[in-house]
Specification:
The chain contains 18 helices and 16 strands. It is an alpha+beta fold. Strand 1 and strand 2 form a beta hairpin. It starts with a helix and ends in a 7-residue tail after the last strand. Belongs to the beta type-B retroviral polymerase family. HERV class-II K(HML-2) pol subfamily.
């Protein structure tokens, strides 16, 4: 008996023969139709009476029936893709319209459509042809049946629903526009309604580009300070963008048009000069740090521009007004001049003291000069860089290291979810604590245990065996609950200063293990690091010697330290050896981690 494989091979061969037979039949029918059409036209010419000669009348119009039909390539094969069904049928309909004599009958149209099917569509076409399905009677019937079987295009209300849910996301404006117009063509709403929807679904970063494009390509704009300044001082007349939204990177381009005499660079320079006298670098070299502003009982997350060319620390005036940040007038106004000596608006106000949190755990009290800077709500200039001397990772827009003075001041005061004011005014009920232990109040302070401890003589040292280096572990995959726990752990640890972003060549694996209460404990695979660490050979006391000192005692007290491991700092310079990898990024410990 034949095997299943042999039966399948025979079946495939028969299907190939049927498909070839169908193609040959279609070609023969097409040729036959052409011959019949030609004979019919010749017969009509013989039967029609000759017109009497009229030399004075204008020459008769050419009969379009006798013009040769254009030679067109047949439509591409259709393999049954749902989104391409209507496009294929539209091409076939236009093909028949341009060759009416060749495809004068419905059977010829149906035959051509069936010959253009491939794949699963060809299998379907073979079945309906062999079974003489009613859809084979005309091209219109075949089109309706093919739409019912293959077409999954969205039209009407479904297209309108998808259109209202459409977002630009990370796509280019051209890609977003193409999909929008495709869905809008199938919708039923007015053009003005769709225009409002289209402009409302841009990504936020596109709005400054729209304004800048209008500034650069405005028809009456000429390369002169007067015209550019007069237009740059006007509001964003095209759109209204909240000033707290700053694009992660504003990239400029000419939109496919040629730049006229370096006008683009000129306009960007003038606009930046008008933004409070802060001359920003080209967008490709700017660094935007995520920061957190705290004042009174309020806070706000935004982006700060780090600019070594700015001679101060600035905040946009409208930005401060929008967030209701306290404003203090200056005793003496500050005069600002551009690089070319042109006078710019004077600075007359400053913010009250606010707390600026950078990189999760760097806290400082700061006052910012208020100016007009709509493209950068916060600008950290040269004085801020000199004060903190940060090591900025421009590739990831983050700070990987701070100056020594920051570790003694800005980073020590970092805390997680506890307000900094609670560190000094923490009230603890000691009524149930024996008086012999009340002097240990600060040792068991919850807020102090959640902050970065100072360096001490007994910091945890990590001495490596000579000639070795910490290995790089693998990145563990995390489940959804584990990823959520990881995000919380990283955020809290960054805020407390226990960890910081790392550029270390080492990187241990990060994962979780379950606790008895069902919660998750973060673990780091330091086995490779432990294997190359010089062991501490200091002798431990014997158990018998320890118990001898307890003889005769009847009362025992157990003291459990809060965050015991995190109360000990890693020796300065050894932090890079504790680096670990997570799906969120690369970090290193400043305190003693578990598993070391």
């Amino acid at each position: 008996t034949p095997t299943v494989q042999e039966l399948l091979s025979v079946n495939n061969a028969r299907m190939d023969q049927q498909e070839e037979h169908l193609l040959n039949t279609g070609r023969a029918v097409q040729a036959l139709v052409a011959q019949v059409s030609e004979l019919t036209s010749q017969l009509q010419q013989l039967r029609s009476p000759a017109a009497p000669p009229t030399p004075l009348s204008p020459p008769p119009l050419t009969n379009t029936e006798h013009l040769p039909e254009p030679r067109l390539p047949t439509p591409e094969l259709y393999a049954g893709e749902p989104k391409l069904c209507r496009a294929f049928l539209t091409k076939c309909s236009m093909f028949f319209s341009l060759q009416p004599r060749t495809f004068a009958t419905e059977s010829s149209k149906v035959a051509l459509v069936l010959t253009l099917l491939s794949g699963r569509a060809a299998l379907w076409g073979t079945a309906v042809w062999e079974n003489q399905h009613p859809c084979c009677s005309s091209f219109l019937a075949l089109s309706e049946e093919m739409k019912r079987v293959f077409d999954r295009a969205v039209v009407g209300r479904e297209a309108a629903r998808m259109l209202t849910d459409l977002r630009q996301g990370n796509r280019s404006v051209s890609d977003y526009s193409i999909e929008f117009r495709t869905l809008a063509a199938d919708g039923t709403s007015s053009c003005m309604g769709w225009l409002i929807v289209f402009k409302g679904k841009y990504s936020l970063w596109i709005y400054p580009l729209i304004w800048m494009d209008s500034l650069i390509w405005r028809s009456e704009l000429t390369p002169g300070y007067s015209n550019v300044i007069s237009f740059a001082r006007t509001p964003w007349h095209l759109i209204s963008l909240p000033v707290q939204y700053l694009p992660p990177r504003i990239r400029t381009h000419a939109g496919g048009r040629e730049s006229v005499g370096g006008l683009e660079d000129f306009v960007f320079t003038v606009v930046r000069l008008l933004s409070g006298g802060v001359l920003l670098e080209k967008s490709s070299s700017t660094t935007l740090l995520p920061v957190r502003l705290q004042w009174a009982a309020a806070f706000h997350n935004c982006l700060a521009l780090v600019d070594s060319g700015a001679e101060g620390k600035f905040m946009d005036f409208d930005f401060a007004h929008h967030l209701h940040i306290p404003v203090v007038p200056l005793t003496h106004k500050i005069t600002v001049n551009a690089l070319n000596g042109q006078a710019l608006p004077d600075i007359t106000h400053t913010t009250g003291p606010v707390t600026l949190v950078t990189s999760g755990n760097h806290l400082e009290s700061i006052t910012l000069l208020l100016t007009l800077s709509p493209l950068a709500p916060i600008v950290l200039g040269h004085p801020w860089l000199v004060q903190h001397n940060p090591r900025v990772d421009r590739g990831h827009d983050s700070v990987s290291a701070w100056s020594d003075s920051c570790y003694a001041s800005c980073l020590v005061s970092a805390c997680s979810s506890v307000s900094c004011s609670l560190l000094q005014n923490e009230s603890v009920n000691l009524s149930n604590v024996p008086k012999e232990y009340r002097d240990l109040k600060e040792v068991f302070s919850k807020s102090r245990a959640a902050s970065l401890p100072p360096h001490r003589p007994y910091d945890c040292a990590i001495d490596l065996v000579p000639g070795t280096s910490p290995p790089k572990g693998k990145l563990y995959s995390l489940s959804a609950p584990e990823r959520e726990a990881m995000e919380k752990y990283i955020s809290d640890s960054l805020a407390a200063g226990f960890i910081r972003p790392s550029s270390s060549p080492a990187g241990a694996g990060f994962f979780f293990v379950g606790k008895k209460d069902g919660s998750l404990r973060p673990c780091i695979d330091y086995r490779g690091l432990n294997n190359i660490t010089v062991k501490n050979t200091y002798p431990l006391p014997l158990m018998s010697s320890a118990f001898e000192r307890l003889q005769g005692a009847s009362v025992f007290t157990k003291l459990d330290l809060r965050n015991a491991y995190h109360l000990v700092r890693i020796r300065k310079g050894d932090e890079w050896k504790t680096a670990f990898n997570t799906p969120r990024g690369h970090f290193e410990y400043q305190v003693m981690p578990f598993g070391l």
